[in-house]
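Let us practice reading a record.
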Amino acid sequence: MTGKIYLLQDNGSLQAMSERSYVTEERLQLLLKDYPDLLAGDQMDEQNPRRWLLVSREVGVPIEEGGGDWMSLDHLFLDQDAIPTLVEVKRSSDTRLRREVVGQMLDYASNAVAYWSVDRLRAQFEAGCAETGTDPAQVIAELIASDPTDESAVDGFWEQVDTHLHAGKIRLLFVADEIPPGLRRIVEFLNTYLDPVEVLAVEIRQYAGEGLRTLVPQVIGQTAQAQGRKSGGRSEKRQWDEPSFFQELEKRRGSAEVAVAKKILEWAQTHMPAFRWGQGPRSGGFIPELDHRGTCHQVIEVWTYGTVEVQFQYMQSRPPFDEETRRLELLRRLNEIPGVALPENSITRRPGIPLSTLQDEPVLAQFLTVLEWVVREMKST
């Protein structure tokens, strides 16, 4: 590293500052912990800059359901849209800052999406707040610009984290003092074609001179093609319809899951015919609805990333499923379906069931039977 930047002093003198490497990787990690703005959220989204909440450092990642932690991610952040952001830090002098670190990050991501529990992540965040004497609700409220006394907003934020994990909607950040050309190409490729995951690198160069230090972050990986596909909140809405939905689902998940979704749609057209199509910029969905005695009911939403979400969060504000006992009964019936094992706290959230779980005809028939029971219960009010 031989670059320089120049600081023009108020007295007219020019102070040269030379580029310096970080003494240790730990030093760069601590800078991110103390100054998350170094992740350059303003460069990722100029219109709606990303703001960061640190869940924890050294976050354990299991490799099997209910197993112990086998790996440790450097940092886990959340942004204001509740998108989990996995950060791995390396110095440019580390020879692993190419293929090996990419494989390592993908290993973290695949297992995190499969085995992380949002309750565990929330507990880690709250434990960190307890150590620093900060109020976790206040921290989240500041991040999402809400009233810290509004518990529903805080709970809703964590529910969104859970939803994004289930959907694989995460962000992967490689951070170093210099991103080598080989890693740049890999990041650009992954960010263009690995949907809905966003993959970026952040280069944080350090300059020092006469008691001064300047840190200059730069985001890498935002090709024009990738930005068009993964621009998050700054994308224009897309009105999905039946042809576009199934075309996208086929591309992402294959014909077997398309067949499942089509049967669910056929069921909806008969039992909950007021369904509507979503307007997500990247992922599409359809929501069957039932208008009954002036109340609009929802039970599920089916997504192009191959998940059917059960809308407990929506249902809990409308009779008869505003009663906890009714939602628990629905949960019990769902968990009797082979391959479905939703936790009890799902009854206030929007848990997802993979369409692949419903591929066998008897399993799908059992799922639709549960939905028919829900409709009968709704019509009984």
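A brief commentary: DSSP finds 13 helices and 15 strands in the chain.
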